[in-house]
Amino acid sequence: xxxxxxxxxxxxxxxxxxxxxxxxxxxxxxxxxxxxxxxxxxxxxxxxxxxxxxxxxxxxxxxxxxxxxxxxxxxxxxxxxxxxxxxxxxxxxxxxxxxxxxxxxxxxxxxxxxxxxxxxxxxxxxxxxxxxxxxxxxxxxxxxxxxxxxxxxxxxxxxxxxxxxxxxxxxxxxxxxxxxxxxxxxxxxxxxxxxxxxxxxxxxxxxxxxxxxxxxxxxxxxxxxxxxxxxxxxxxxxxxxxxxxxxxxx
Length: 250
Hints:
The chain is α/β, with parallel strands linked by helices. The protein has a domain at about 1-75 and about 150-250: P-loop containing nucleotide triphosphate hydrolases (Rossmann fold). The protein is about 40% helix and about 25% strand. It has 10 helices and 10 strands. The protein has helices at about 40-45, 70-75, 90-100, 105-120, 135-145, 165-180, 190-200, 215-220, 230-235, 240-250; strands at about 1-10, 15-25, 30-35, 55-60, 65, 75-80, 155, 185-190, 200-205, 210-215. Strand 4 (about 55-60) and strand 5 (about 65) form a beta hairpin. Helix 3 packs across helix 4. The termini are far apart.
């Protein structure tokens, strides 16, 4: 599970994440929505241990990230929004390298790596250097690397970026099966349809604070039956349609 208590991140006088309290239990696919600059990526990077919080605590699978970072991170897989990979490694070597960071090697890791690459149609590229991969192929490889060590928690920032429809469908099925087995996913996305169809619960963040949290039916009930797009726009103060009309009429 993921547990955040009073999680805060300041950049000088600017507060990017403002005292967030959040718990994502085992077996849940949790959606994290918000406009650009709302604090989504900052929150996910703190959970992944890439950014240091200004204050507050993060627990992953019951382990305090600050007190025992190696043990906490061993439970985590992270899929960033931008697939930065060592380009002078082959795809198979990269997965082997990531597994080694978690102290895993041998035939089981090799088998998992082959299975993951085959799942995303990368098996023919396993021995090719990553520098020859397209953006979508790199995204598939990063996704595969997040699963290679069988983590209990996965944090995902915009997972569908660069994926073709087949790969996106495979990833959705993989996520659902992963949480069905009792694991945890926290996913940031701008694609409201993906969040509505895939996530068990959703939080909407604006200006570093969580404005609403719940299941889709619960959020609809609070918004008197509105769809997720309308709920999102109301809670984040967006007035896209009106603003667009005003620009065209100006």
